[in-house]
């Protein structure tokens, strides 16, 4: 960690909300800046461990639910893909159908 002296360690805020995807993208950008900068000499496994540490307890809990091969555990792109899949908003088809059925057309003179 001596490579990170003077740098702010990124932290991911996992609280639900409409801006969760935006917060994740900002977290990823900060991580990539550090991983391509002061931590560039580290190998893929170490970089993945840094991201897990920075993602906090919730990120580690998510990681523990993934079924990863040994090669995937060393691939940072796989981590980003899985985290992003988790934070992307999901469509609620039942709720959308309910809203659609409630729409009424206005009469114009």
Defining traits:
mainly alpha; 0% strand; elongated
Layout of helices and strands:
Blueprint: H1 20-36, H2 44-65, H3 70-73, H4 76-87, H5 93-101
Helix pairs in contact: 1-4
Would you mind describing this structure in some detail?
The chain contains five helices and no strands. Helix 1 (20-36) runs antiparallel to helix 4 (76-87). By secondary structure, it is mainly α.
Write down the secondary-structure element order.
Answer: HHHHH
**What are the low-pLDDT stretches, counting only 5+ consecutive residues below 50?**
none
| Mean pLDDT across residues | 86
Q: How would the global form be characterised?
A: elongated
Number of helices: 5
- The rounded distance between the terminal residues' Cα atoms is 71 Å
Task: Let me know the number of strands.
Answer: 0
Largest sheet: none
CA-atom Rg in angstroms = 20 Å
**Helicity, in percent?**
55-70%
Q: Helix/strand-derived class?
A: mainly alpha
Amount of beta strand: under 5%
Protein name: Chromo domain-containing protein
Organism: Pocillopora meandrina
Characterize this entry briefly.
It comes from Pocillopora meandrina. The protein has 109 residues and is mainly α.
